[in-house]
Design goal:
Blueprint lengths: L2 H13 L6 E5 L4 E4 L5 E4 L2 E6 L3 E6 L3 E7 H7 L12 E5 L3
Antiparallel strand pairs: 1-2, 1-6, 3-4, 4-5, 6-7
Length: 97
């Protein structure tokens, strides 16, 4: 995943109103759920998520395998207009080449 795509996707998912929980999968298969928009900070291709209990999880655009959320969340996060599905089908944004 490019640094720009990483930042825009995470920032878009953070700004959704109402916020919806989404999952980040790192290379190697480790996953965590981003459960609150204020618990995530993204800058210059690097992010830190403060998990419950204040445990920091550091990750960057190169360590992300995929970001998992509802189809409509991802379309909204990427700025696609007219996506009014509201469904909860899983979709992924893959790292790409």
């Amino acid at each position: 995943m490019t640094a720009d795509n990483f930042a825009s996707t995470l920032s878009g998912l953070q700004r959704l109103n109402p916020f919806r929980v989404f999952t980040v999968e790192l290379n190697g298969g480790r996953r965590f759920e981003v459960d609150h928009p204020g618990a995530l900070v993204v800058r210059d291709g690097v992010a830190v998520f403060l998990a419950p209990g204040g445990v920091p999880i550091w990750f960057d655009h190169e360590s992300v395998n995929q970001i998992i959320g509802g189809v409509w969340q991802i379309f909204l996060a990427l700025g696609y207009e007219g996506c009014q599905n509201g469904g909860t089908n899983a979709a992924t944004l893959d790292r790409g080449p």
